[in-house]
Amino acid sequence: MASAELEPLPHFVGTDVEQDELLEVISSAASRSFKPVGHSSVVLRMRTVARVTAALRVRSHEIQRGYQYEIAAYRISRLLGLDNVPPAVYRRVSWKEIRARFHEEMLARRGSVQRAVLWDEDGWAPGAAVYWVKGLRSAGLEDKAMWQSWVQDAEIPRGHAALARDLSTMAVFDFLIGNWDRFSGGNLPTDSTRQRAFLRDNDRSFSAPLLARRYEKLLGGLTRTERFSKNVVRHLAALDEPSIRAELARDPSHEADPLLNAAQIADVMDRRATILSYIAALIEERGEDIVLFFP
To answer: How many CB atoms lie within 10 A of CB 68?
Structure first.
């Protein structure tokens, strides 16, 4: 059993409530309004009567399973003990609901949203409700040159240790889930203090098979990382197929339509072995205290 199951899950960054409480609200609270915010997929900012906002990633013709991969990535992040992957949970929505509550300043986009969504015959569509993080900032982290040395052997600037840890963990997390889309723009924001990075927009993960050029790109990101979080590596070492299946099954949609298939889970486990082998070799060469640099 994965150690993540035996320890309390940390609160999501910037909140003082349990992550499961956030999931309950964004999966069930009545909607107040919908505003399109996505570009390459159908994403609507959904305000709720509970005054908690979510990004609703709806199944689209272009990316039919992206909403499931967003949820699956979040579920795996829980097994790693992470606190910076926005909580995501299954939620269905009808066109009738969206149409009635569409943001009045965005009515010109209502038709394009309707056409982009892959609706069921009853006028409903599945999606992922993702906790909306307020105060996000673009800190230019897509420019790896500004921080790559922090996860290697350079001195980390004062006040940036937590950010450096997040960037190291990003390399592990993205390789594990096969997320090749992190640096396409806007997918690596920070909090308002620029001290934490959020690993959001994971809907392009879990490609099966993962194209060789994308695998090599992710592997390069991993092998350019030489400092890791001791806690993340401990959770990764404890990760196994039964714990992944059990965690995925906690999403309300999984029984009817599994978030990942057997081949995708096997790929995750193969990539886990690659990560651990790489880290073990570094530890043998440099020592555990040098490699497991972050808490």
So the answer is: 26
Do 88 and 164 fall into the same domain? no
Domain end (from 108, 131, 154): 131
Looking at the structure, do residues 85 and 161 belong to the same domain, yes or no? no
Provide φ and ψ at 66, rounded to 5°.
-60, -40
Same domain (yes/no): 127, 150: no
Q: How many C-beta atoms surround the C-beta of residue 91 within 10 A?
A: 24
**61-98 pLDDT, tens digit each:** 999 999 999 999 999 999 999 999 999 999 999 999 99
Structure tokens at 150: 């922090």
Domain containing residue 66: 3-131
Residues 158 and 286 in one domain: yes
Q: Tokens 């003990």 belong to which residue?
A: 81
Half-sphere exposure of 110 (CA within 13 A, CB side): 16
Buried-exposed string 118-135: b where 16+ CB fall within 10 A, e elsewhere: ebeeeeebbbbbbbbbee
Q: Residue 30 half-sphere exposure, CB side, CA atoms within 13 Å?
A: 4
Q: pLDDT (tens digit, 9 = 90+) per residue, 110-133? A: 999 999 999 999 999 999 999 999
Please report whether residue 279 resides in a domain: yes
Q: Are 248 and 260 in contact (CB under 8 A)?
A: yes
